[in-house]
Amino acid sequence: MRTIRVVFLLVPKLHLLDLAGPAQVFTTANDFGYGYETSYVAEAEEIETAQGVPIRARLDWPELGPGDLIVVPGWRSPRLQPVPPIGPAVRQRLRDHHAAGGSVASVCSGADALGAAGLLDGRRYTTHHDLTDELAARYPGGSMIRDVLYVEDDRVITSAGIASGIDLALHLVAVERGAEAAARVAREMVVYARRNGDELQDSVMLRHRGHLSDLAHRVQDVIDAQYADRLLLADLAARIGVSERTLTRLFTTATGLTPLRYQQLLRVERAEHLIGHGTTIEAAARAVGFEDARMLRRLRSRAVA
């Protein structure tokens, strides 16, 4: 498993939670062995945050590859500055990293930096609700998506205000390391995982974790970890210590899905990720636990319909 390098680009007056939330997600994921390496760079050695806490940063950038990520936390709003607080060299670095196959992400007003680098043109994006009108007017070449937590479009991932950076980071962990990894991180951080809006970029696991049923969470933990295995309802019920009927009733009430349907959605989501990275449908189907590609094709067509 290749280590994913995550570089946080720090700008003056950044919001602490814009930085700390995603940083906590990636460092916690690394503590669990999922392979993340974080670093913090800026155009000055010391950055003053919006909350008055100074942060030390490095001036040199680590070497980044196609699978790595640059995150731009937001800075003090509610209005955008006349010019984003990043220089021409940093804008070029953002462009070059994305052009080389890397991903770039922003939290809140950090989308202004991505726009200044030309990375919002022709793409969907979002930001804090106080800034949507200004950002939409500043970067009309892109399409502003309002009232959602985050949007992903061609390796450009933008999120809404402040705490939504946690949601964005959990989504990226789920995509790169799987639903189980994101679930472990969310539970460790005591995050009430939730999603809103009509965007489907959020992971299945997170989209159906917005409930308070401990039983359903425990069942989901099992399915998240073994979604590619053949899981019998009787075995799940025995592991949790309830009857099959009780498990199905409580799980469906909490998530809106049966355990089987939840497992199928996890499999399809992971298969879509593999297919998007060049895997054939047949190989993806086998990798996620289907005996052949027919069921995967059927479930994919149902999702589209």
Automatic annotation (TrEMBL):
Keyword set, alphabetical order: Transcription, Transcription regulation
Source domain of life: Bacteria
SMART domains reported for this sequence: HTH_ARAC
SUPFAM superfamilies in alphabetical order: Class I glutamine amidotransferase-like, Homeodomain-like
Molecular function GO labels: DNA-binding transcription factor activity; sequence-specific DNA binding
Domain (HTH araC/xylS-type) ranges: 217-305
InterPro entries associated with the record: Class_I_gatase-like, DJ-1/PfpI, Homeodomain-like_sf, HTH_AraC, INH-QAR
PANTHER family (alphabetical): ARAC-FAMILY TRANSCRIPTIONAL REGULATOR, HTH-TYPE TRANSCRIPTIONAL REGULATOR RV1931C
Name this protein carries in UniProt: Helix-turn-helix domain-containing protein
Source organism per UniProt: Kribbella sandramycini
